[in-house]
Amino acid sequence: MLEVKGLRKVYEGSDRRVEALRDLTFQVGKGELVCVVGPSGCGKTTLLKCVAGLLRPTDGTVTLGGTPVTGPRPGLAVVFQEYGRSLFPWMRVAQNVELPLRRRSSMSRGTRRERVADALDAVALGDVGRAYPWELSGGMQQRVAIARALAYEPEVLLMDEPFAAVDAQTRAELEDLARGLWRQRGMTVLFITHDIDEAVYLGERVLVLSASPTVVRADLAVELPLERDQLTTRADPRFTHLRSRVLELIRSAAARDRLRKDGPRTPGAGS
Ligand code: ADP
Ligand code: MG
């Protein structure tokens, strides 16, 4: 479904050059839920933008359903971290959710309304369609953003740290909501997070990114049951084992990075 090959992105500024991604290669099968985890600043958003066709890679290719991605395309929806900035405050909730559908001229008004109602129901916000986003809590606003993506009925859903800005309880609820929707709707989901526990809890696979210069450190299968639960799953030895493994991978990458920057520290050196 999604194939990323030799992806590299260098931001060229007038006085600054940032190699955000060095060399990423991975594949995501149709209907899979894959989490990408990596430290802050390692290029996760850059990766997502390249996959969404919002940013042109310096090198390498992104292919979706067999065709190269060269710009934004139908069938793909994105949920960003900053729900506050992704919803229009002057539009009611239902109008926000309907907005991307309005560009489909072939879709009747009735169908649009149905899709919107269905998507709001799916995120348990069936009764707030007439409210304004700023009248809702942060968690509810993020659910509106998810509903907007769902109404569009994407084949591929990209999520960029969507729950990083909400409180822990809401976050747990949203994680379960995301998994539930993935299972019901059979979408292909690429979920990006800096949170190791979240990646292991949500994913069927976890791609671990190194710190910059960024490469894929590991591609791990999550061998947990399909049916997950915040209490039992997080206490499952398979869960704790995998999260330690991911933590180790990220730490060793960070340590190697420091070593490269500072040089090796041998006893007696520098005296
Ligand atoms: P993450 O999402 O993992 O925190 P980003 O993809 O946002 O990381 O950023 C990766 C690196 O690229 C950072 O060093 C960041 O400063 C840099 N970067 C991101 N966007 C730009 C840009 N538009 N111009 C220049 N540098 C950028
Ligand atoms: Mg980011």
> DSSP helix count?
9
What CATH architecture do you see? 3-Layer(aba) Sandwich
Strand order of the largest sheet: 6-7-8-3-9-10
Q: CATH topology, anyone?
A: Rossmann fold
Shape: globular
Structure classification:
alpha/beta
Mean of residue pLDDT? Answer: 91
Look at the structure and name the CATH superfamily. Answer: P-loop containing nucleotide triphosphate hydrolases
Low-confidence stretches: none
Order of helices and strands: EEEHEEEHHHHEHEHEEHH
The portion of residues assigned to helices is 25-40%
- Radius of gyration in whole Å, from Cα? 20 Å
Descriptive overview:
The chain is α/β, with parallel strands linked by helices. It has one domain: Rossmann fold. Helices cover 40% and strands 23% of the residues. It is built from nine helices and ten strands. It has a six-stranded mixed beta sheet, sandwiched between helices. A hairpin with a 6-residue loop joins strand 9 (205-209) and strand 10. Helix 4 (109-122) packs across helix 5 (138-151) and helix 7 crosses helix 9. The longest helix has 26 residues, at 237-262. The N and C termini lie far apart (57 Å). Residues 11, 13, 18, 20, 38, 40-46 line the site of adenosine-5'-diphosphate (ADP).
